[in-house]
């Protein structure tokens, strides 16, 4: 759907920061004052930030040569993060992280988001980013644009003192509990996070898909920033670092909020990402945050569905597990994206793909791959083994949702006996995908 006549897509330079914030605050209601909002650092890459303006005649302006001057007002924004090393199964590729999408309520439901998505896809293709990823404000928005929920995360409420299975060596590690200071802890957080995504288990080459890192200075700054106005009544952000002979092996950030009831203190520990490089560090990290005085429960922000804590807890049900959609993925360049990841078994399959929004992706593609090795994708006239839309490919791309599971909902059609199970197996990955932070 084209934009109505009076609207136009524009680039947004940093000089339009206040206008951008105004639209953001219309799209995402917030109780912080304009003054505070303007004082906060922004995570944006300005050369990847755009918007939509409406241009209407300005009745208050003095006509020039008989013509009424036009007034331009920003009504919508969007941006993207440059993830140049976004983990996909067995590889890191350039991915565009769509973010800061907002339309002023006065101008919604007339095709502005649709126009911005088209622009975003064109930008992805021009930049050589074969995949777009996002975390969705509402789960109903992005499926129509060919995105699929490619990762889920686990939310827990772990009772204080919950019993953990013992791990040898945990007690030998040392623990630092400090107030988070970006100057002191920034590099430790960044390095451990990166390592945990590249090698979440002892196996080389098996990464954690979706585990985006904060690659730009702007993102690093905002990630560790802790403005009082955004603490929601909780304390300043703290950090636990677990060390082995002085070498950091794990961390989590956390805040406590203590309420008092007639039975005594009932405090909640809200953590950020919980990251550790080995079983002993994982055990020590969790046993530390599960044993903070005046608290009765720990709520990690969002952790992988296969996080080690699920295997360490003696009574996982007591942690009230629930899952939520995490990263959504859209293959913008289907052959480029399919060839960029690794597969867990040899594969030779013809996929028939439908993609109404990006017709270059439509048609039949032969995907051949060797287990954990190189993959190639070529256009073919051969009869397809499987048919699916680009949204199903996005859903399965990070290895977290099986194509066979999608087929049980009628979303993948098998034309060749056995092709579904072979392809679904090859698309799977030993480690569950997740992004540990909301972008
Ligand atoms: C990656 C991120 O940044 S996620 C953040 C997204 N932003 C927000 O949620 C902020 C608040 N919401 C908004 O700013 C706007 O309502 C937006 C961005 C969600 C939608 O913008 P609009 O310009 O109204 O969307 P547009 O008119 O292009 O709608 C396109 C289609 O999406 C549908 N749609 C739009 N918003 C939603 C929604 N929240 N839930 C379900 N469907 C939606 C429309 O109904 C329309 O469907 P149709 O093609 O069948 O008619």
From TrEMBL:
The keyword Acyltransferase applies. Pfam families: Acetyltransf_17, Acetyltransf_9, SCP2_2. CDD domains: NAT_SF. GO terms for molecular function: aminoglycoside N-acetyltransferase activity. The keyword Acyltransferase applies. Acetyl-CoA binds at residues 101-103, 109-114. One of its GO terms (biological process) is aminoglycoside antibiotic catabolic process. Residues 7-174 form the N-acetyltransferase domain. The active site is at 142 (proton donor), 439 (proton acceptor). Keywords: Acyltransferase, Transferase. It comes from the Bacteria. HAMAP family: Eis. Belongs to the acetyltransferase Eis family. Homohexamer; trimer of dimers. This is Predicted acetyltransferase.
């Amino acid at each position: 759907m084209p934009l109505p006549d009076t609207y136009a897509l524009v680039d947004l330079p940093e000089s339009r920061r206040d206008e951008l914030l105004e639209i953001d605050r219309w799209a995402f209601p917030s109780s912080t004052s304009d003054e505070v909002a303007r004082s906060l650092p922004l995570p944006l890459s300005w050369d990847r930030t755009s918007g939509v303006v409406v241009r209407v005649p300005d009745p208050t302006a003095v006509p020039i040569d008989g013509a009424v001057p036009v007034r331009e007002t920003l009504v919508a924004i969007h941006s993207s993060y440059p993830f140049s090393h976004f983990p996909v199964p067995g590889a890191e590729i350039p991915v565009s992280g769509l973010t800061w999408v907002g339309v002023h309520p006065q101008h919604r439901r007339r095709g502005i988001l649709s126009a911005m998505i088209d622009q975003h896809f064109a930008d992805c293709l021009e930049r050589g980013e074969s995949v777009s990823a996002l975390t969705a404000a509402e789960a109903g928005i992005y499926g129509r644009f060919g995105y699929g929920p490619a990762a889920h995360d686990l939310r827990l409420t772990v009772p204080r003192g919950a019993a953990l299975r013992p791990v040898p060596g945990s007690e030998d590690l040392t623990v630092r509990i400090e107030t988070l200071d970006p100057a002191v802890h920034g590099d430790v957080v960044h390095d451990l996070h990166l390592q945990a995504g590249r090698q979440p288990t002892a196996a080389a080459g098996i990464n954690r898909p979706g585990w985006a890192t904060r690659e730009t200075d702007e993102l690093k700054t905002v990630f560790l920033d802790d403005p009082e106005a955004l603490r929601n009544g909780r304390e300043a952000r703290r950090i636990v670092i677990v060390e082995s002979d002085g070498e950091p092996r794990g961390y989590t950030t956390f805040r406590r909020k203590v309420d008092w009831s007639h039975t005594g203190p009932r405090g909640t520990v809200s953590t950020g990402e919980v990251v550790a490089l080995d079983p002993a560090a994982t055990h020590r990290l969790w046993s530390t945050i599960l044993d903070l005085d005046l608290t009765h429960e720990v709520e990690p922000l969002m952790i992988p569905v296969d996080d080690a804590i699920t295997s360490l807890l003696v009574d996982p049900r007591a942690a009230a597990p629930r899952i939520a959609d995490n990263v959504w993925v859209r293959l913008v360049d289907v052959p480029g994206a399919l060839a960029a990841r690794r597969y867990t078994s040899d594969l030779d399959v013809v996929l028939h793909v439908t993609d109404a929004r990006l017709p270059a992706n439509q048609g039949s593609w032969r995907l051949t791959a060797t287990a954990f090795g190189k993959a190639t994708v070529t256009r073919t006239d051969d009869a397809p083994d499987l048919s699916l839309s680009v949204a199903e490919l996005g859903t399965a791309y990070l290895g977290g949702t099986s194509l066979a599971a999608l087929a049980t909902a009628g979303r993948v059609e098998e034309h060749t006996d056995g092709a579904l199970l072979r392809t679904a197996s090859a698309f799977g990955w030993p480690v569950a995908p997740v992004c540990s932070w909301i972008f």
